[in-house]
Amino acid sequence: MLKRSKKDENDQSYVGGKIMEEKIAPSPLSPTSGQEQTIIGEHIAIEGSIRGEENLLIEGSMKGNVEMQKYNFAVGSKGRVNGEIHAQNVNIKGELKGNINALGKVEITSEADFYGEIKAKSISVEDGAYFKGVIELDREPHRKPAGVQKPLDQKLAGSVKEPVSQAVDIKKET
């Protein structure tokens, strides 16, 4: 005989009169406490732009731009996205063709296919991922500009003459 299971509002399953706790593995970009996540299922196709103020996971197909500035965007393993993405963090497990502008991190997993340009603070590409594109990392430079450094030795400081520039006022009389 098969046993039926049902859930209550606390995500507990009842199987044959016994309570079973359900453990859901968090996704790499799972929402933090207080943040919601919208999932576009694998049998859904969207054509157009999406703007939102919560995390978004695409398991279906989408053609268009995504604006999620302070929130996370993910392409699931069955997801196919063609467009420009603006988000806090981006995680790709499926296929993404287009440009990514992330304020944080872009993660490309081993089963992902990516074609396009990425601008982000950091990026990780797992071994086995397909990547064809350009990467630009946003960060502060490690070195100071060469013109700012002063000699350390005071003896040398007196012998180095700095160029002096004067404003010259030239008037042409006719």
Can you tell me about this structure?
- The N terminus is likely disordered.
- The protein is globular, with a radius of gyration of 27 Å.
- The chain has a domain of 97 residues.
- The protein is mainly β and 174 residues long.
- The strands form 3 sheets. Strands 5, 6, 8, 9, 11, 12, 14, 15, 17 and 19 form a 10-stranded parallel sheet that branches. A 6-stranded parallel sheet has the order 4-7-10-13-16-18, with no helix packed on it. A 3-stranded antiparallel sheet has the order 1-2-3, with no helix packed on it.
- It contains 1 helix and 19 strands.
Poorly predicted spans: 1-33
Instruction: Report the principal-axis shape.
Output: globular
What is the gyration radius calculated from CA atoms? 27 Å
Largest sheet: 10 strands, parallel
Concise overview:
The chain contains 1 helix and 19 strands.
List its salient traits.
ten-stranded parallel sheet, mainly beta
What is the fold's blueprint, element by element?
Layout: E1 5-7, E2 12-15, E3 18-21, E4 37-40, E5 45-47, E6 50-51, E7 55-58, E8 61-63, E9 66-68, E10 73-75, E11 80-82, E12 85-87, E13 90-92, E14 95-97, E15 100-102, E16 105-108, E17 113-120, E18 122-125, E19 130-137, H1 154-159
Parallel strand pairs: 4-7, 5-8, 6-9, 7-10, 8-11, 9-12, 10-13, 11-14, 12-15, 13-16, 14-17, 15-17, 16-18, 17-19
Antiparallel strand pairs: 1-2, 2-3
